[in-house]
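Weekly puzzle thread! Below is a chain. First person to post its structure in C-alpha cell form gets bragging rights.
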Amino acid sequence: MKFHVAWARVLTENQILKGAALVLSLLSAILSLSLARASIKKPVIIERGCFSRHVTPVDDKHSSKEIEEFLNEALRMRFDSSAIDYEALLSKKETKYREKEQEDLKKKGFSQRVLINQIRTEQNLYDIELDKVISSGKVRTAVPLKVQIEISSTERTPSNPYGLLLVRVKERV
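Winning reply:
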C-alpha cells in the first residue's frame, strides 16, 4: 500500500470518528436537558387497589376549603355521639372533654349530633354557629350554640389527611 492511500484512509476514519463524537455529544446534551426537565416536574402518584386512579400530591399549606372541611369533620367528631376514631382530629384535652360529655349524655339516655350553620374566620380563630340536636328516643331538641375554635397544624396521616388538629373549643355568648 502506498503512503498517500494509507494517509487518506486515516484522514477519512478521523472525519467519521469526529462526526460520531459530535453526534453523540449532541445526543448526550439533549438527553441531559430532558432528564433535568423531567426531574423538576411533580411526580405522578398512582394509588393501587381494586382500581387504579391518579392521585394529586397535597401541599403543606392548608386552603380555606380544606380548613372548612376539616372543621365540619372535627366538630362532628367532637360532638356527635356516634363518632368513631375521633382521637386523630382532636387534641388530648378535647378528647377528654368529649369522652366526659358523652359519658354524661349516655348516663341520662341521650345522644347528640351537630349541624353546622356558619363558619367565620378571625385571624387564627374560627367562630362557628351550630345547632346541637339532642335526642332521647324519638324526641329531639335543637339547641343553638356559638363556639370559637382554635386549630393547629400537625403531620398528615391516613387517619388525619387534613394535617390539622382541633386544639380548643370555647363556647361563646
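Puzzle host: Confirmed. Bonus trivia for everyone else. DSSP finds three helices and six strands in the chain.
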